[in-house]
Amino acid sequence: MKKRYVLILIPLAIIIILWSVTLYHSYNSFNNLVLDQIDATEITSIDILKSSNDEHVKIIDPQEIEQIIHEFSDMKLRRSNASDKSTEIYWISIIVNKSMRFGMSITDTNFLYMTNLASESKYSSGNFKITSEFDREFIPSLFK
Questions:
Q1: How far apart (Å, rounded) are the C-alpha atoms in residues 56 and 47?
Q2: What is the pLDDT of residue 15?
Q3: CA 26 – CA 80 distance, rounded (Å)
Q4: Neighbours of 30 (CB within 10 A)
Q5: Host H or E run for residue 13
Q6: Cys staple from 46: which of 36, 39, 53, 59, with CB 3.0 to 4.6 Å?
Q7: Burial of 77 (0-12, 13-18, 19+ CB in 10 A)
Q8: Of 69 and 5, which is predicted with more confidence?
């Protein structure tokens, strides 16, 4: 009888551990993906491209860069394979010491694709749903 419980509990424990690891990696934040990898003061510029008309803006002013990073810093993310039909996509490149370090695309439907070009970890890039409050008008306001 005792052996039977052990044979049931071991696979159950393994399943719970695997589920916990998967759940842990499915929730993330901009801080974990970007700001834990670099010091925000190392960012030399941010390039933003609007997909609908190929309009481009390059941010080099340190105060504007700090404002953009601050806007993103509270962003909570959940891994997601799905995305809604978007009408606008913004391609964002974060340049660190004059070389592109992070690439992001943000849709108007609150989906984000992020990649860390300096890391080969499978957890350093992916598709995410933005789960926290995020001002959708912030990025378009940078083009004015």
A1: 7
A2: 82
A3: 8
A4: 24
A5: helix 2-26
A6: 59
A7: buried
A8: 69
CB 76 within 8 A of CB 131: yes
- Distance between CA 35 and CA 110 in Å, rounded? 20
User: What is the distance, to the nearest Å, from the Cα of residue 86 to the centroid of all Cα atoms in its chain?
Assistant: 17
CATH of domain 28-141: 2.60.40.4250
Range in 20-24, 27-31, 66-70, 119-123 the model is least confident about: 20-24
Q: What is the pTM of this model?
A: 0.76
Which residue do the tokens 């300096």 mark? Answer: 118
Overall residue count recorded for the chain in this entry: 144
- In the numeric block, the tokens 């970890």 are attached to 121
Please say whether the beta carbons of 14 and 60 come within 8 A: no
Question: Is residue 47 within 8 Å of residue 58, measured between CB atoms?
Answer: yes
Q: What pLDDT score was predicted for residue 44?
A: 94
